[in-house]
């Protein structure tokens, strides 16, 4: 394992570049995101797995999520606490190259479509309950979804179907939307009696989604049949983030407020790896898109940890 520091700002989320094997961006916020400035940090790692800091962009409000452009290798979109979305170019220091401001509350999440690479989605995790669809070439959002009653915690594009987006929120519901008919979700599941904090699509099994919940569980759903396929337990507190492996269809990683990240094998319904090196909430994780054994986490302990999972030893 190698570690880099984001101090004095806490890590909130991170994402690997779809163009470069070792390149990642980290979203950071001061005072645990409650008030204060933010920072977008760029890192890479060398052949020995050592994390190397590169460009930093400082902002007046916390940054809560990041997504790399699917069109331009140096561009990163950031979700901000002031309700704005900013697009940065890592080769152009200091200032964002584009900015949008339509959300009435904090923007806690952002996702770039891999099907329509000109499009990205943002979600407000406060009380406006909306998801907005954007393209970098437009000064205004293309579409606004009335996604949930209350907070929207996650909005992720399908890796298989164009015009398809899944959302989850504080109402405990999992929605799947067809963006061509945005008035109401195409599918809606009452997935949890508590808040749903995260979701992710399986990259190999169409219609399969994992969710992470305040009730400490991770569930895998077949949304076409409205059926729960797996119910995974092991975390001691809420599951903040889930992400399917981009390399193996039955592997999921999770991050939790119990200060651990875990790797699960859905084929045997069990946890196969625990990463417990963080000393505060683990808020972000990301699989390398090129190396199946590299998982990276960040948290409120100001640390970014790169973990080698070869062997999957506990």
From TrEMBL:
Could you tell me which residues the WD repeats occupy? 145-187, 189-231, 232-274
Q: Which UniProt keywords apply?
A: Cytoplasm, Peroxisome, Protein transport, Repeat, Transport, WD repeat
InterPro entries listed in its UniProt record: PEX7, WD40/YVTN_repeat-like_dom_sf, WD40_PAC1, WD40_repeat_CS, WD40_repeat_dom_sf, WD40_rpt
First-listed, main subcellular location of the protein, grouped into a coarse class:
cytoplasm
Keyword Hydrolase in the entry? The reply is: no
Q: Output one GO MF annotation.
A: peroxisome matrix targeting signal-2 binding
Q: What is this protein called?
A: Peroxin-7
Q: Which GO terms describe its cellular component?
A: cytosol; peroxisomal matrix
Where in or outside the cell it occurs: the entry states: Cytoplasm, Cytosol; Peroxisome matrix
Can you tell me which family this protein belongs to? Belongs to the WD repeat peroxin-7 family.
Which Gene Ontology biological process is one annotated for this entry?
A: protein import into peroxisome matrix
């Amino acid at each position: 394992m190698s570690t880099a520091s984001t101090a004095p700002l806490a890590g909130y989320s991170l994402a690997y570049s779809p163009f470069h094997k070792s390149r990642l961006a980290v979203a950071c916020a001061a005072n645990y995101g409650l008030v204060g400035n933010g920072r977008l940090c760029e890192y890479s790692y060398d052949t020995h797995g050592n994390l190397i800091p590169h460009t930093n962009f400082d902002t007046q409000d916390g940054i809560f999520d990041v997504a790399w452009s699917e069109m331009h290798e140096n561009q990163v979109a950031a979700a901000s606490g002031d309700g704005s979305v900013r697009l940065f170019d890592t080769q152009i220091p200091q200032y964002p190259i584009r900015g949008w401001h339509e959300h009435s509350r904090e923007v806690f999440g952002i996702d770039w479509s891999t099907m329509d690479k000109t499009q990205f989605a943002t979600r407000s995790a406060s009380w406006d309950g909306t998801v907005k669809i954007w393209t970098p070439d437009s000064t205004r959002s293309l579409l606004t979804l009335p996604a949930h009653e209350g907070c929207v915690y996650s909005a992720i594009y399908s890796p298989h179907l164009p015009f398809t987006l899944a959302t989850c929120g504080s109402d405990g519901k999992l929605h799947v939307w067809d963006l061509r008919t945005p008035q109401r979700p195409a599918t809606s599941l009452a997935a949890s009696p508590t808040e749903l904090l995260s979701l992710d699509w399986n990259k190999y099994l169409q219609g399969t989604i994992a969710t992470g919940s305040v009730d400490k569980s991770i569930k895998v759903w077949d949304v076409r049949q409205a059926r729960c396929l797996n119910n995974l337990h092991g975390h001691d507190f809420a599951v903040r983030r889930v992400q399917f492996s981009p390399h193996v269809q039955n592997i999921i990683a999770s991050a939790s407020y119990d200060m651990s990240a875990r790797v699960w094998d859905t084929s045997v319904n069990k946890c196969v790896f625990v990463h417990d090196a963080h000393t505060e909430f683990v808020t972000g994780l990301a699989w390398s898109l090129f190396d199946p054994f590299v998982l990276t986490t960040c948290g409120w302990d100001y640390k970014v940890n790169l973990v080698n999972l070869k062997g999957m030893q506990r």
